[in-house]
Amino acid sequence: MAWRMGANPFAATPHWWRLLLRSVAGLLGVFFYFVALDHLHLADASLLNKTSPFFVTLFAVMLLGERLARGMVPALAAALVGAVLVIKPTFDVSSLPALAGFASGICAGLAYTMVRSLKGRESPNRIILTFSLFSTLATLPVLIAVRPDPSPGQWAALLGTGVFAAGGQYGLTFAYHHARAARVSVFTYLHVLFALVVGFVLWGERPDVLSLIGGVLIIGAAVQAHRAKQD
Question: N or C: which end of the chain has fewer CB within 10 A?
Fold first, then answer.
C-alpha cells in the first residue's frame, strides 16, 4: 500500500543513512523487546521498553543538536532509577532478559530520533516501507535456517502480532513525524497500563513492589519531561 502511494524504498536519497539507522535500530529494538517479553512479566517488559522517550531526548541532543530543556536532568535521573528498580540487577545471567528490555528502549529511542530527523526530508510511508523491507530481508535467513512449524493457534497469534504491530508502527511514525516528540511520548505510556491489565487478566501476572515503584518513577519522569519541554 505504501509503495502504491509513491514510497519507493529503492529511490536514491541523500538521507539513506538516516533511513538505514532507523531501520537497524528499530529491528534491534523489536528483537530485544521480544527477548524481554519471553522472560519477564508483560508490564515489566513494557516499562523497560518505555524508557525510549528519554533516549529520544538524549539522542536528539547528541545527534540533532537540540537543547536539553530545563528540568530534563532530574527526569532522566528518575527514569534511570526506575529502570534499575524494574531490572533489579543481580550481575548474573538472570538479569539478561531485563537488560534486553532496557536495550529495547535504547534502540527504540534511537529509531524514533531518526524518524524525527527525517521530518520534511522523507515521507512517513517511505520510512515505514523501508523499515518493513529491511526487517524482512534481515530476518529471512534466520527463518530459512530455523524453519519453524507453527500450530494453527500460533499462526493466529503471529497474524495478530503482525497486524497490531503494523498498526502501531504506522501510528507512531505518523505521530512522531507530525507532532512534537515530547507530546507523543507521554501518550505512549498508556501502553504500560494496557500491558498491566492484560498481563493480570490473561496470565495472573502481579508486578512486585520494586517494579511498581520503578514504574511510578518512570511514568512520573515522563510527565516531568513533558512539562519541562513545554516551558
Answer: C
3-state secondary structure of 122: coil
Neighbours of 47 (CB within 10 A): 34
The CA-CA-CA angle for residues 220, 75, 211, to 5°, reads: 50
Question: Is the separation of the CB atoms in 11 and 73 below 8 Å?
Answer: no
Q: Are 55 and 106 in contact (CB under 8 A)?
A: yes
Instruction: For residue 7, give Cα distances in angstroms to 16, 124, 160.
Output: 14, 9, 25
- Residue that is written with C-alpha cell 535467513 in the block: 141
What letter does residue 9 receive in the DSSP assignment? T
User: Which residue, 121, 6, 7, 123, is CA-closest to 64?
Assistant: 121
How many residues belong to the chain? Answer: 231
Could you read off the pLDDT of 131-175 as tens digits, one per residue?
989 999 999 999 899 888 889 999 999 899 889 888 887 887 788
Task: Indicate the DSSP class of residue 8.
Answer: -
The residue behind cell 521530518 is 119
pLDDT in tens, 177-227: 777 666 676 677 777 778 888 888 888 888 889 888 988 888 888 878 777
Place of cell 529511542: 109
Residue type at position 192? V
Which residues have C-beta within 8 Å of that of residue 5, sequence separation ≥ 6? 125
Domain assignments of the chain as residue spans, ordered by start: 16-140+151-230
**Amino acid at the residue 172:** L
